[in-house]
Write a structure and sequence with these properties.
OB fold (Dihydrolipoamide Acetyltransferase, E2P), about 30% helix, alpha+beta, 5 helices, six-stranded antiparallel sheet
Length: about 160
């Protein structure tokens, strides 16, 4: 994976978005590696969750579909579902994530990848995914929506002490 990435600063966070990956609006990513695809969750996803304590993933040999739930990630704050960006057969599971789930917080794109997939519909799946520039714009819009929700909530609290 190239070191070239967009960096979005939001409050105390720096969100990294590598330029050589494909992204879904479910905050997962896909990286083409020879004839297979490496899949993980984005830096934005892990920041939303906070300290990750458990990751549930599909089994080796299982067939998964793009945009469908394939597992979940638990943190101290919440449990979020993971959605696959690519359809195919699971041919690898990152043992480091199973042993130490917080590796996803420390290294979501390198050491914290989740699955290796043998794709079944790669062309169509890649067409549906976002490039890094479009994903950056998507993340900016999500941050702005969250700011608006928080502002509305604060306004309601001020009006109703």
């Amino acid at each position: 994976m190239a070191e070239d990435a967009y960096v979005l600063k939001s409050g105390k966070f720096e969100i990294k978005i590598p330029k050589d990956l494909h992204y879904s609006e479910h905050n997962s990513w896909a990286e083409l590696e020879n004839s297979s695809i490496r899949v993980g969750v984005s830096d934005f996803f892990q920041i939303l969750l906070g300290d990750i304590t458990f990751v549930e993933l599909p089994s080796l040999g299982e067939f998964i579909q793009s945009s469908k739930e394939i597992g979940s990630v638990e943190s101290i704050k919440a449990v979020l579902d993971i959605y696959s960006p690519i359809s195919g057969k699971v041919i690898g599971i990152n043992p480091k994530v199973q042993e130490s789930p917080d590796i996803v917080n420390r290294s979501p794109y390198e050491q914290g990848w989740l699955l290796q997939i043998e794709p079944t519909n790669l062309g169509k799946d890649l067409e549906r995914l976002l490039n890094a520039e479009r994903y950056l714009e998507y993340v900016k819009s999500q941050i702005e929506e969250e700011r608006k929700r928080r502002a509305e909530k604060e306004k309601i609290l001020e009006e109703n002490p």
